[in-house]
């Protein structure tokens, strides 16, 4: 059982954000023993517990108050908020800070052999993505009637596999798109990792600890500039 007096921070267990999250906590002075493959790592010098989970679970854990803070990509956060929009579950978080890692963009792409295309090409097409809600919002905004095909992985092979006409996927260098014979189009969302907080947090000790950590975070970010 977790000690509820301790500030709970959710970070990605293993993936593109893990190392940067661990480094950030270290720079904030939070000492952790992360060597063990445990779900929860207790800080040895502050009343902080770090939960290591899949990035997709982080927004929900923070929205539901299971964790007080979380570090997650804006792409995952925006998708989770759109998923909960209009429902009964809490979809709010406080964005405490944008972070200087995890940069990527969610962009449209289609088979290179088709050559450059404008938005009207997407009319009636099937677009594979892991972010159907963000894609739907974009299509609505641009008044394009196309359908989203949800895939949790291997999105970039969907056109070749005949599963979709195009994709809407995360890109950082564009190397993966190129390797899969895809041409990059419009960026739908630019994303960085960000630090989020449960908006219903009232525990004064936890809030005081966050107040103590935030100037340090600002310092770490400024030192990088
Ligand atoms: P998990 O097992 O935690 O669900 P995942 O496979 O969904 O992991 P990763 O590939 O590790 O996630 O990416 C985590 C986050 O890193 C992304 O949601 C995004 O915010 C960011 N990111 C930065 N660059 C890229 C990139 N080139 N491709 C994908 N994600 C990127
Ligand atoms: Zn994920």
TrEMBL record:
<dbReference type="GO" id="GO:0005524">
    <property type="term" value="F:ATP binding"/>
</dbReference>
<comment type="similarity">
    <text>Belongs to the ATP phosphoribosyltransferase family. Long subfamily.</text>
</comment>
<feature type="domain" description="ATP phosphoribosyltransferase catalytic">
    <location>
        <begin position="54"/>
        <end position="219"/>
    </location>
</feature>
<keyword id="KW-0808">Transferase</keyword>
<dbReference type="GO" id="GO:0003879">
    <property type="term" value="F:ATP phosphoribosyltransferase activity"/>
</dbReference>
<dbReference type="GO" id="GO:0000105">
    <property type="term" value="P:L-histidine biosynthetic process"/>
</dbReference>
<dbReference type="GO" id="GO:0000287">
    <property type="term" value="F:magnesium ion binding"/>
</dbReference>
<protein>
    <recommendedName>
        <fullName>ATP phosphoribosyltransferase</fullName>
        <ecNumber>2.4.2.17</ecNumber>
    </recommendedName>
</protein>
<keyword id="KW-0479">Metal-binding</keyword>
<comment type="function">
    <text>Catalyzes the condensation of ATP and 5-phosphoribose 1-diphosphate to form N'-(5'-phosphoribosyl)-ATP (PR-ATP). Has a crucial role in the pathway because the rate of histidine biosynthesis seems to be controlled primarily by regulation of HisG enzymatic activity.</text>
</comment>
<keyword id="KW-0963">Cytoplasm</keyword>
<keyword id="KW-0328">Glycosyltransferase</keyword>
<keyword id="KW-0067">ATP-binding</keyword>
<keyword id="KW-0547">Nucleotide-binding</keyword>
<keyword id="KW-0460">Magnesium</keyword>
<dbReference type="GO" id="GO:0005737">
    <property type="term" value="C:cytoplasm"/>
</dbReference>
<keyword id="KW-0028">Amino-acid biosynthesis</keyword>
<comment type="pathway">
    <text>Amino-acid biosynthesis; L-histidine biosynthesis; L-histidine from 5-phospho-alpha-D-ribose 1-diphosphate: step 1/9.</text>
</comment>
<keyword id="KW-0368">Histidine biosynthesis</keyword>
């Amino acid at each position: 059982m977790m000690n509820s007096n301790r500030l709970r921070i959710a970070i990605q267990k293993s993936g593109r954000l893990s190392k940067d999250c661990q480094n950030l906590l270290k720079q904030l002075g939070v000492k952790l023993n992360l060597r063990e493959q445990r779900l929860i790592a207790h800080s040895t010098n502050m009343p902080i517990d770090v939960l290591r989970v899949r990035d997709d679970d982080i927004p929900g854990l923070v929205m539901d108050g299971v964790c007080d803070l979380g570090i997650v990509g804006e792409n995952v956060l925006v998708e989770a908020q759109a998923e909960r929009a209009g429902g009964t579950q809490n979809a709010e978080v406080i964005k405490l800070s944008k972070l200087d890692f995890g940069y990527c963009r969610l962009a449209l792409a289609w088979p290179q052999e088709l050559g450059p295309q404008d938005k009207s090409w997407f009319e009636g097409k099937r677009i594979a993505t892991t972010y159907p809600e963000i894609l739907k919002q974009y299509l609505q905004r641009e008044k394009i009637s196309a359908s989203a095909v949800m895939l949790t992985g291997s999105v970039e092979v969907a056109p070749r596999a005949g599963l979709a006409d195009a994709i809407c996927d995360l890109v950082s260098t564009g190397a993966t798109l190129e390797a899969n014979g895809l041409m990059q189009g419009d960026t739908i969302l630019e994303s960085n990792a960000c630090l989020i907080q449960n908006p219903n947090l009232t525990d004064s000790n936890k809030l005081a600890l966050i107040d103590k950590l935030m100037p340090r975070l600002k310092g770490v970010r400024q030192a990088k500039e």
